[in-house]
Amino acid sequence: MTRLLDPGPTGRAPWFVLWQLPVVALTLLLALALALAEPAMLGTPSMLLGLALIALASVVAFQAPARGLIAVPLADILAIGLIRSETYTELPAVSAIAMVPILCLGSNFGGAGILSAVVGAVFVNGYSYFRHTDLPDDGIAWIGAASLPVAAVAVALIAYAGARALRAQQGEIVSKSAELGASLLEAEFRRDMTRTILESLDVAVAFFSTEGRLVAANHRAIDLATKGGVDVRGAVHAATLFWRADRIATVPVAQQPLPAALGGVDLAPELFWIGEPGDQVAAMMSARQVYGADGDRIGVVVVADDVTELVESVLVRDQFLATLSHELRNPLVSVVGYLDVLTQEIPGRVSDSEDEMVAMLRTARTSARTLTERIDHLLVASAQDRLTLDLDRIDLTALVASVADRYTSLAGARGVTLVRELEQVSTTADAHKIGLLVDNLISNAVKHTAAGGEVTLRLGVRSLIELVVADTGTGLERHERQRAFDRFYRTEAARRDVVQGLGLGLSICKAVVEAHGGEISLKSSPSRGTTVTVLLPRRAG
């Protein structure tokens, strides 16, 4: 059933105002007019019964259940028919009042309402003719008599169609409202889920729009930003308490993660210190552009991981290694010195029967020198992030050759061929640290190459000084290549074959090369060997 207004308890008053009040008002106006012009008509039975029916219908409009409301417009039509039967000669237009209940029937009660409207319209006009036995006597009169039923049909159909259209529109509005409500609920769910996920992370995460407006962040991000002197919800995102990994150099605003990312530059993970001196935290920070499904940039995300405990533990380790190395190196200098003296002096003063003692001294001296080299490696490793260079003009070719000479006998004993392709090169560098570099590269190559293999040294100059150490040894797996330059990392093969070393060689090489402003790279594959390439800038003395 289609209705313009809800006839339930909450909508009964509007329904009454729309459909019953006009009938009551028009009837009262009619009664007032008759009281002034024809008061005798008000006392007729039909008039009194009609007025009583309208009054009763008005009461029923508030009391009847929704399904019984059709009785209200039907009672109105019956009342109007009775009233018209008294006034049809003086006031034939009284039948126009019936249009209100006819509209009500068509709008609210579907097919039954339309049929009731037509029957009611016929009754309003026909009852007067039936009661007074005064049928129309010509065509015009018959047309007039039929006009109300015809109009009733048209009005009822129009009202019915209008009500259906309105109901469809209301249904569409309700449907869209439901969809909107569901979308809002889903959006709220996603927002809550995103917030929960962000807060569950052990890292600081913040997402900003392309204009720099904070969209989402967990409390770790807010706390870290506040520690760095940043108001993330403000328009300016420059950190005032932001330091490089050395805790000395401040970071320019344009190079800070968020401003750089907002400017379109991605920042790879980098270590920063954040906060007031004495109360700083170490954070590994990165920043990335964020793009939508259509490829358009929609914002930036900044991620920071608090690594204070890890960094401080590394610093403690490095300080311990540096202290231990110094404490061990000082007495070893004396041991090596005296062993050098003894191995030089004793051979001329002992008989052939005591040659075994001389051999033992030489072995002790070799072991002491090896231990000294290990300690030197530890010293460099503990300070590799802050190496200081003692620069001087050096003959790089002679230096590489001298280091290679020390490994010639070892390579021969292992059945490894040591090939040299050395051009004449001179440069300005730290001779001791370059010596460590070359020593580690050759040592690694010889130790990891089996008998019958080959180690090749190449030194030349183009736009840069290029030093290459290539071997035909065991090579490295992919995961081993990724960690080759890490401090204290040793491959599984090195541990299995009990190859001597601390796992510091390549990390020292990297530190020395970078301290000289150069680059080092490694190519390797299992069973095919390894090639390490060092590029150093050419420096005049």
Compose a concise summary of this entry.
This protein is α+β, with helices and mostly antiparallel strands and 541 residues long. The chain is 54% helix and 16% strand.
Characterise this structure.
With about 550 residues, this protein is an alpha+beta fold. It has 16 helices and 13 strands. It has helices at about 10-20, 20-35, 45-65, 70-85, 100-110, 110-130, 140-200, 220-225, 255-260, 310-345, 355-380, 395-415, 430-445, 480, 490-495, 505-515; strands at about 205-210, 215, 240-245, 265-275, 280-290, 295-305, 390-395, 415-420, 425-430, 455-460, 465-470, 520-525, 530-535. The strands form three sheets. It has a six-stranded antiparallel β-sheet with strand order 2-1-6-5-4-3. A hairpin with a 5-residue loop joins strand 5 and strand 6 (about 295-305). The longest helix is centred in the first third of the chain and has 62 residues, at about 140-200. The model has no long low-confidence stretch (mean pLDDT about 80).
Give the SSE layout.
Elements lengths: L11 H8 L1 H17 L7 H19 L7 H17 L11 H10 L1 H23 L6 H62 L3 E6 L4 E4 L1 H9 L14 E2 L13 H6 L4 E8 L6 E11 L5 E10 L1 H38 L9 H28 L9 E4 H18 L3 E6 L3 E4 L1 H17 L6 E8 L3 E7 L6 H5 L9 H5 L8 H11 L3 E7 L3 E8 L5
Parallel strand pairs: 8-10
Antiparallel strand pairs: 1-2, 1-6, 3-4, 4-5, 5-6, 7-9, 10-11, 11-13, 12-13
